Amino acid sequence: MSTPTLELSDEHHSLLAGEAGEAAAMCMRIVTKVARLRGAKRLVPIESAHLDGCLYHGQAGLDFVNRVVDGGGKVSVPTTLNVGSLDLLHPGLVRTPADETTAAGRLMAGYQALGARPTWTCAPYQIGHRPQMGSHVAWAESNAIVFCNSVLGARTDRYGDFLDVAAAVTGFAPEAGLHLTANRRATMIIDCTGLSGALRSTDALYPVLGYLAGELAATAVPVFTGLEDFVPGEDALKALGATAASSGGVALFHVVGVTPEAPTLDSALQGADAQGVPTVTLDASTVRAARDRLTTASGDEVDAISLGTPHLSLTEFAALADLLVDGEPFHPEVTVWVSTSRLVLAAAEAAGYAKTITEAGGKILVDTCTYITPVLSPNTRIVMTNSGKWAHYAPGNIGVDVVFGSLSECVRSARSGKVVRDDDTWR
Fold first, then answer.
1. Whether residue 189 sits in one domain with residue 177
2. N or C: which end of the chain has fewer CB within 10 A?
3. Which H or E run includes 147?
4. What does pLDDT average to over the chain?
5. How many C-beta atoms lie closer than 10 Å to residue 245's C-beta?
6. Helix (H, G, I), strand (E, B) or coil at 46
């Protein structure tokens, strides 16, 4: 089968010819090469970008950014930045050797030199970067991608390090993958109608649904039914998508009656016969077993609590502060970490939520996250979290055992100094 010819405009050829500078030409070569590999017929202009590669993983990432900067490269569309390897507002919280700290700082500075906003968050949608439904963007970072596609209804493919930069500099992306309407059709139905109302109402269910979706759908597009009466909010959808993108490669999901491209099941299926679409019917035992797979620890010991993966939203700050309103402090042997963006933290400080949390003994981290950088005490062995993404990655990334629970269970455990969970809802 022959590869479709990639149609390029005069503007595209101008970029390739170096008329906008050496860096723009290099970035355009990257975009067009990937477009041809993907079989794209055209490039689409993008309205914004979110860049993922701000974490320092070695010299190659720094070399690439420096080459773009030295070549005069600048982003051509509004661009936000993912988490880095440092908390720039609270120096010393991240324990890295001096040479790595220096390199990490240079990498973050390099991305700013491109003209991107120094947002340092995996959740740019919480700080006003919210593209309109149907608009084309180039977002990287798995949870940002799935939220953008699913909850906002904007269109981005799975962009990884360097391709996202190339798209941001040129302003173009391959018209492939989830930029195409046909590829956004749901190809698996996950039926939640058999779950109890109490279970569908708990915040802990949604990371578990995401975990199952990743396992079941891999990189396919699942659609959930049976949740429309409970109308899960943005934080629940954020948690679902983040975990689905971690346990699998889900970049788009639909929830009938909730997400913008799924007012009905027929809409999500784009008119395909539901009888011919693979369907998984969930029951309490299935979701309880998935919840338990997110826990690797045994017993009731807990050393730390980690909240905010993806970054804690202002709404979640309010919910956490409300649970702490009686003033009972956290147990002295349990460290509670809250990861968020610097802009959400500013709003939480203005509202008084951050003070409530720190007065209870909590610690707040910005610009990075606790499962990818050395923040937790070296003596930490068992961590409880309400994040399916954190639970999935932390054992391998930082060598701890994990207990998964709801936000309220995390708070009760932090106060008691041992794991407290209520299984009745999951029956």
1. no
2. N
3. helix 142-147
4. 97
5. 28
6. coil
Q: What is the DSSP string of 323-383?
A: HTTT-PPPPTT-EEEEEE-HHHHHHHHHHTHHHHHHHTT-EEEESS-TTTSS-S-TT--EE
| First-residue to last-residue Cα distance in the chain | 53
Residue 108 lies in a domain: yes
Would you say 253 and 241 are in contact if contact means Cβ atoms under 8 Å apart? yes
Residue 209 has which token pair? 């649904």
**What are residue 382's DSSP bridge partners?**
401
Q: Centre a 10 Å sphere on the Cβ of residue 91 and count the other Cβ atoms it contains.
A: 10
Q: Which of 131, 158, 182 is the last residue of a domain?
A: 182
Shared domain check, 138 and 29: yes
Same domain, yes or no, for 310 and 176? Answer: no
Residues 375-386 have pLDDT tens digits of 999 999 999 999
Q: Give me the amino acid identity at 419.
A: V
Q: CB neighbours of 292 closer than 8 A, spacing ≥ 6?
A: none
Collapsing DSSP to helix, strand or coil, 55 comes out as coil
For residue 210, give the 3-state DSSP assignment.
helix
Total structural domains within the chain: 3
What CATH number does the domain containing 350 carry? Answer: 3.30.499.10
Average pLDDT over residues 420-427: 92
How many Å separate Cα 42 from the centre of its chain?
28
Q: Is the pTM of this model over 0.90?
A: yes
Average pLDDT over residues 264-282: 97
115 and 99, same structural domain? yes
Task: Say how far apart CA 407 and CA 391 lie, in whole Å.
Answer: 14
* Distance between CA atoms of residues 304 and 392, nearest Å: 16
Q: Give phi and psi for 61, each to the nearest 5.
A: -65, -40
- Which of 4, 15, 65 has its CA nearest to residue 37? 4
Question: 416 is written with which tokens?
Answer: 């008691």
Which residue(s) pair with 172 in the sheet?
45
Range(s) of the domain holding residue 91: 10-182
In this prediction, residue 4 carries a pLDDT of 79
Tell me: do 138 and 219 sit in the same domain. no
Asked if 241 and 156 count as a contact pair (C-beta separation under 8 A), the reply is no
Structure tokens at 164: 């996202």
Res 2: pLDDT: 62
CB 401 within 8 A of CB 394: no
